[in-house]
Amino acid sequence: MTTADFNIPVPKVATAAPTRLRLGSLTALVIGSMVGSGVFSLPQNMAAGAGPLAILIGWAITAVGMLALVFVYQSLATRKPELDAGPYAYAKAGFGPFIGFNSAWGYWISAWVGNVSYAVIVFSALSYFFPAFGDGNTWQAVLGASILLWLIHVLVLTGIRQAAIINLVVTVAKIAPIALFVGVVAVAFKLQVWSLDFTGLGNASLGSITAQVKSTMLVTLWVFIGIEGASVFSGRAERRKDIATATVLGFFTCLALYALVSLLSLGILSQPELAALKNPSMAGVLAAVVGPWGAILINIALVVSVIGAFLSWTLLAAEIPHVAAKDGTMPKFFGRESERGVPSTSLLITNLLVQAFLVITLFAQSTYQALFYIASAAILVPYIFSGAYAAKLALTGESYESNEQRAGPLFAGLLATVYGLWLVYAAGPAYLFMCAILYAPGIIFYVWARRETDQRVFHPAEAALAGTLIAVAILAVYEMWTGAISPL
């Protein structure tokens, strides 16, 4: 997951005019938004809880669900061109300020927790060369990640953005090793290995087919976070119709890469062997085919790619509350900028949270996989309400001509919403409880923002929703305190 190798845009609420992006740039943005660290760990992440059959089913469900979300974002980008502030704007427009705020808050949580996972996996990869870094959660790794975090913070404060050469290096570092991996593993693929315990039912620890499929859902969601990239940057598109084309092209390109990486790996190593690999597990798979140089290549490629992703998502994570503050969704202090136009307050708060979670990984021994599960679960709110808003527009006829066909957009919106709800179910209580703990403090900032603009804080339904969220968060804290759940 990266925000692609483009500068974070200035939305309509800011003063600078956005740079116009053509189809090629928008397509690269979508692909860059999705291809980050996740693909390098797909073989182990998928095999950890599922056999080949369940993985196939998981990819099929993901393809249908994410394609529906693709159609949602392409439809909303053309029907609501005035909403250029990201997915949270759709939730706010369709379901009120409190839902809109929680969508912005959830997107922000997903972004900075995702950055924690990037820091962990960078040093997990470096442990191939320096064993003291372990799984990226030793004190040496946390110290190194902290230094990297604040170096990036200083870079952003100086106004530095990715130069063209960094853009090129990061893009090649992402795509070229993946393409090489797919080619080499396809040649070495062994059907007898792939078909060994095809259903996964021979391994009692995996559970039923349904349980196995559920275990793949947050993994597949994680690698597709960023599918909304062209929609988020819609204000910069030279032609709005290119947003739809770029999103579809990016989606199918990444779907093919992801599915091939995870499925072909099952023809090199068995499910138990893949599940036992250290991340980035692509390194272990390639090493099994070509020897140690394969692991070295993947680990180096991952480090370069994820550092670029870390920088990109630091910019985005700081931009989300900054933009939301500009339209009154978040408190005004998030909107403060430095003399260079950097969202300095938002950046500082974001990186302090990243730092805090890095320390938590040390004491909780949190792994990359646990962190991306939390990031994936946190982003479900903006995704679900984006789908619901598209369905609502189709039902009410808003933005449609009187005789315009609405069945297709309605179906896509409903399907995207159902897919999001299925992911909530698949996430399970541990990660949802963790998200409740992270969402609940947002209520303080919502109340703060509403009072700054002299608006009514809660309507009755919103008050009930806020109370429920607080109650769930308190229950989650109790469950974690007693050890009943432990997502980290």
Architecture overview:
With 488 residues, the chain is mainly alpha-helical. The chain is built from 20 helices and no strands. Helix 4 packs antiparallel against helix 5 (97-126) and helix 9 crosses helix 18 (407-439). The longest helix is centred in the middle third of the chain and has 35 residues, at 292-326. The protein is globular.
Helix and strand arrangement:
Elements (H helix, E strand, L loop, with lengths): L22 H12 L7 H6 L4 H28 L7 H9 L1 H30 L12 H19 L6 H25 L2 H4 L14 H16 L4 H4 L8 H25 L5 H5 L5 H10 L1 H35 L17 H21 L3 H11 L1 H17 L10 H33 L2 H11 L7 H23 L6
Helix pairs in contact: 1-11, 3-9, 3-11, 3-17, 3-18, 4-5, 4-17, 5-6, 5-14, 5-15, 5-16, 5-17, 6-14, 6-15, 7-11, 7-13, 7-14, 9-16, 9-18, 13-14, 14-15, 16-18, 17-18, 18-20
Feature tags:
globular; 488 residues; mainly alpha; Amino acid/polyamine transporter I
